[in-house]
Structure formats: C-alpha cells, structure tokens
C-alpha cells in the first residue's frame, strides 16, 4: 500500500511538473511575442515622429526655395534694366530717380535671395540635427536582446513552489524568475517603452558645463600654508 501510494504521488508530481513546464514555455513564448510587437510598434511610432519632422522642415525649405527662385528672377530683371533699359531722352532728375529705384530694388532682391538661401540651409540642417540627435529610431541594443534570451534549463531554477504548483488551487499563478547573465534571478516583467522622442545628451552642452565648472574651480583662490 505504501509503495502504491508512493508511485501515485510520484506520478502526480511528474504530471504537475510537466504541466508547469509547459506553462513556463508558453509564458516565455508569449513574452517574447509581446516584446517583439512592442519593439515593432515603438519603431513605427518613431518613424511617424521622423515623418512629422521632415514635413515641418520641408514646409520651410520648399517655401524658401520658391522665394529664392522668384527673387533670382526679379534680380535678373533689375540687371536687364541696368544694361538694356536705359532712358536716354529724359530729364536728369527723372533719370536719377529711375536709377536710384532700380539700384534699391537690386539690393533688396539680392538680400531676399541671400536670406532665402540661408533660411533654407538653416532649416534643412536643423531638421537633420533633429533626426540624428533627438528622434533616432529606438533600435534595441544587444544587451536588451540578450535579456529576451532564455533557455529551457532556466525552468530548473524556478523553485519548488513554481515547479510543483497545483493547478486550479493556487490562484496566484506562477511567478517565474528570469536568469540574468550575471547569475541573479529577477522576476519577469514587461520592459518600459518610452512615451516619445527623448532628448539625447548634447556633448556641446556637457562640454560647456564641464568647462564652466573647471573655470570656476580655477578661479577659486588657493590657500597656501
């Protein structure tokens, strides 16, 4: 009788361990699929941010290019008036006003062409800076990918409470622990996703802070004994 009870208990423990092992595999597959979807949706979300930046930049660049073209045409008209549009039979004061007005128009058109070119280049460079410094695609690093790597032997480190959890009796569910590369056990939890484009550290600003702090330290009076 004792042997039969032992065999029945062993068979039951085996079935419970197999059931929890299948749960462990299922949970890891679901977590991997969820993290894959999260990374995919996060990349698509940042692609929308980058598209918005491009649209805003192109709005300014296209308008400045139009101003540049129109200003260059009017500038060529002013040059034509200087070369081929001379007035020979006219009073001197009218000729002076004509040449003065044409010269002022030439200067204003030249400034318009130069400023429109500068605004187009500045807007384009600012857009490139935003895309390369602040709205980078959140591609996962190798460390984040390693955190999603699990082996089935990790099931052996889950403890007796998780391995032999009786179904339908323990309502708390399995609390699996992830085995990190350093050897510590951490509970499985969803990794946090960023809510929007975060500002990357600016090396110039950091350098400015360091230089300012070093200058402050250099300006402090040194006490000699």
In short:
With 225 residues, the chain is mainly alpha-helical. It is built from five helices and two strands, in the order H-H-H-H-E-E-H. The chain has a two-stranded antiparallel sheet with strand order 1-2.
Descriptive tags:
225 residues, mainly alpha, two-stranded antiparallel ribbon, rod-shaped, disordered C terminus
Q: In sequence order, what are the helices and strands, one letter per element?
A: HHHHEEH
Radius of gyration: 36 Å
| Outline | rod-shaped
Question: Which assembly state applies to the chains in this document?
Answer: single chain
Q: Main sheet, how many strands, which sense, barrel?
A: 2 strands, antiparallel
Structural class: mainly alpha
Give the tally of β-strands.
Answer: 2
Strand content: under 5%
The percent range for helix content is 55-70%
Low-confidence stretches: 180-185, 189-195, 199-225
Number of helices: 5
Instruction: Name the average pLDDT.
Output: 76
Looking across the biggest beta sheet, what order are the strands in?
A: 1-2
Distance between the termini: 92 Å
Describe it.
The structure is a single chain. This protein has 225 residues and is mostly helical. The chain has 5 helices and 2 strands, in the order ααααββα. Helices cover 68% and strands 3% of the residues. Strands 1-2 form a two-stranded antiparallel ribbon. Strand 1 (177-179) and strand 2 (185-187) form a beta hairpin.
Write the layout of secondary structure elements.
Layout: H1 2-84, H2 92-133, H3 142-147, H4 160-163, E1 177-179, E2 185-187, H5 203-219
Helix pairs in contact: 1-2
């Amino acid at each position: 009788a004792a042997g039969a009870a032992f065999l029945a208990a062993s068979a039951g423990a085996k079935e419970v361990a197999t059931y929890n092992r299948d749960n462990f595999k299922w949970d890891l597959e679901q977590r991997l699929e969820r993290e894959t979807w999260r990374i995919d949706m996060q990349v698509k979300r940042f692609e929308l941010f980058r598209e918005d930046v491009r649209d805003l930049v192109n709005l300014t660049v296209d308008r400045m290019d139009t101003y540049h073209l129109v200003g260059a045409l009017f500038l060529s008209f002013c040059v034509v008036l200087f070369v081929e549009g001379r007035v020979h039979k006219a009073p001197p004061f009218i000729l002076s006003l004509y040449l003065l007005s044409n010269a002022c128009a030439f200067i204003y058109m030249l400034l318009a062409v130069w400023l429109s070119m500068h605004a187009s280049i500045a807007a384009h460079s600012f857009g490139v800076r935003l895309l390369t410094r602040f709205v980078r695609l959140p591609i996962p690093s190798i460390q984040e990918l390693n955190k999603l790597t699990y082996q089935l032997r990790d099931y052996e480190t889950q403890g007796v409470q998780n391995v032999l959890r009786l179904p339908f009796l323990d309502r708390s569910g399995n609390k699996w622990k992830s085995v990190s590369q350093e050897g510590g056990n951490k509970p499985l939890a969803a990794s946090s996703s960023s809510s929007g484009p975060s500002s990357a550290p600016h090396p110039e600003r950091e350098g400015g802070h360091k230089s300012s702090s070093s200058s402050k330290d250099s300006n402090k009076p040194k006490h000699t004994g």
